[in-house]
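Sample 1 of the test manifest.
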Amino acid sequence: AQKITQTQPGMFVQEKEAVTLDCTYDTSDQSYGLFWYKQPSSGEMIFLIYQGSYDEQNATEGRYSLNFQKARKSANLVISASQLGDSAMYFCAMRESLSGNTGKLIFGQGTTLQVKP
Amino acid sequence: NAGVTQTPKFQVLKTGQSMTLQCAQDMNHEYMSWYRQDPGMGLRLIHYSVGAGITDQGEVPNGYNVSRSTTEDFPLRLLSAAPSQTSVYFCASSPHPPLPGGTVGLDYNEQFFGPGTRLTVL
C-alpha cells in the first residue's frame, strides 16, 4: 500500500493565485514528520516546509503553508500568490519513528505544477 | 558553506563497469544518506550513515556499497553497473541522526540534498 499518495500528477495555476497540492499519508505511527520538497527543472531537491505530528498549529514558511488534518491523514501544501518560479515538481514525504535511526524519508510520486503568466 | 556537493553531475556507464559517485558536505553533519529517484516512484533510500565509520542499508541497497571514513564524505560505489541502476542519485545530509524510537513529531531534522547525479547504464 502506498504510504504517501499524491493524486495530482499535474496542475496548472494562474500567476498570483493560490494553489493547493494534495498529500495523504498512511501510518500507524503516532510520531512522524511530514515534509514538502520542491524539485525545479534543474533537478535539485529544495526543502520547503515541515510539520510534526505533534504540532497543533499548521506550519507556515513565507508563501508556503501546510494544511495538516491529522484525523484525515492529509498534509496539503498551499502556495499563496503563485509566481512563475514556482513551476516545478513538488514532493510530499514522511518520516516515521518506526524507521528508527535510518532517517528514511518515504516520498510520494510528486505533482508537477505549472504557473501560467 | 558549499552545502552538499555531488560529482559527477552526469555519467554514462556500460553494463558491468564500476564507478563511485562522490558526495561531500561541509556542514559537519553526522547523518548522510543516498537516495535514487526513478520516474513515477519518488525517491528511495539506498544506504545511510549515522556517523563516521557507521553505515547501514536502506530500502534498495542491492548493487551498491558505501563507506564513511570521514564526517564529510560518503561515496556510493557501483561494483558492476546494470541497466536497472539507471537513475538520478541524490545524496543528503542532516545535522544529527534520528534517535531510535525518538519522537519524530517533535524532532525537526531537515535533510539537505545535493544537486544529484544522473546516471545512465547502457
